[in-house]
UniProtKB/TrEMBL annotation:
It comes from the Eukaryota. GO terms for biological process: lipid metabolic process. This is Uncharacterized protein. One of its GO terms (molecular function) is O-acyltransferase activity.
Length: 353
């Protein structure tokens, strides 16, 4: 389900080629000279940017290797399919978030630092989900790669007018302020706009659309009129997604059969972003979102407190209450040209579907 407010064009996208055509057609005065193309900034969805981590303490769990305190690939390591149980356990410990009930905030595990891979504007963190030339050949590793290649064929260049702004997707859009993400986003938009002498078009996929909407909602109209050409979202869950409910019950094994879902479940349910993406209470109301067959129970959006109690993760309800005031967004007040594109995933397969 997609809800659009005000000046919003909704399109059903039946092919990847059409999606690229539509993105390019939105660009003002489009032609094949790259210096006349409106610059594009891509914003990834949940789970779709590479994240690195490092130890910030010598007091580590016994099940973690005693390695040097260097930055290591945490999401996603190309060797994940061959991890030992201890390796997977250590990864889970480092990648999960802790919830501070007194401060009502999620934060990294004690002694762990994280960062998004790549420099400001780099396509590196979200073009592929894993590093390395060999893993880049895997279809499951390709994220923005096909879109980037198609845009380059249309005249775009990563050195000038095609950029990406990746973020730590474990945190909900409102928390990105804590990591200077929106300050860096502002810096990137202004730099690209100045370099190309054109307004910028932002393309947000999935949760990337929500992140960008939060960003634009907190910018002045004067700034948006000066720097933003258009905002386009692809598959953004404006009212939440039902899949988020099921993830709290069974978790996801990243489509890699060697990974134990019980381990990934313990990590994924700690993500603040997952609570943010739950179906919106006022919109879904009494609609049954999920049926837990083995427990003979079903849940609606009004049952979140009982749901989290039943899945033995009561912090989940507190996290949901923390982020609920920020969702859904008043899209009619974004103050920019706005387009929604959605696909029927049963008819079209994309790298992220």
């Amino acid at each position: 389900m997609i809800l659009c407010y005000g000046n919003c064009l909704v399109l059903s996208c039946s092919s990847f080629a059409f999606l690229i055509f539509f993105i390019v057609s939105v660009v003002e005065n489009y032609d094949y000279e790259s210096d006349k193309l409106a610059p594009i900034i891509l914003v990834n969805g949940m789970g779709a940017s590479q994240i690195e981590g490092k130890w910030d303490t010598d007091n580590r769990p016994k099940f973690c290797d005693k390695k040097e305190n260097d930055w290591e690939q945490m999401w996603l390591d190309p060797g994940v399919a061959f991890w030992t149980p201890l390796h997977l356990k250590c990864w889970a410990f480092r990648f999960q978030l802790l919830y501070d009930r007194s401060a009502r905030k999620c934060k990294n595990q004690v002694g762990v630092k994280t960062r998004v891979k790549g420099r400001l504007g780099s396509l590196k963190a979200s073009e592929f989900l894993t590093p390395g030339l060999i893993s880049h050949q895997l279809p499951s590793s390709k994220y923005f790669h096909q879109m980037i290649e198609a845009l380059k064929k249309s005249g775009y260049s990563s050195s000038r007018n095609l950029k990406a702004h990746s973020y730590d997707w474990r945190y909900a859009p409102p928390r990105q302020d804590d990591f200077n993400y929106y300050k860096r986003f502002t810096k990137l938009v202004e730099a690209v706009s100045e370099q190309t002498n054109r307004k910028v078009m932002i393309v947000g996929h999935s949760m990337g659309g929500l992140v960008t909407a939060h960003f634009l909602s907190n910018k002045t109209q004067e700034w948006k009129d000066k720097h933003i050409h258009a905002f386009l979202t692809v598959g953004t869950p404006w009212l939440g997604m039902i899949e988020a409910v099921g993830t709290y019950i069974v978790g996801l094994n990243l489509r890699i059969p060697t990974i134990d879902k019980k381990v990934t479940l313990s990590v994924q349910r700690t993500f603040q972003s997952l609570a943010f993406l739950l179906p919106e209470e006022e919109e879904f109301k009494d609609a049954v979102l999920v049926e837990w067959v083995s427990q003979n129970k079903s849940y609606t959006a009004k049952d979140y407190q009982q749901f989290f109690k039943d899945v033995k993760f009561e912090d989940g309800y507190l996290i949901r209450e923390d982020v609920r005031p920020f969702f859904p967004f008043a899209l009619d007040k974004l103050g920019v040209r706005f387009y929604c594109v959605w696909t029927n995933s049963s008819e079209i397969k994309t790298p992220a579907s």
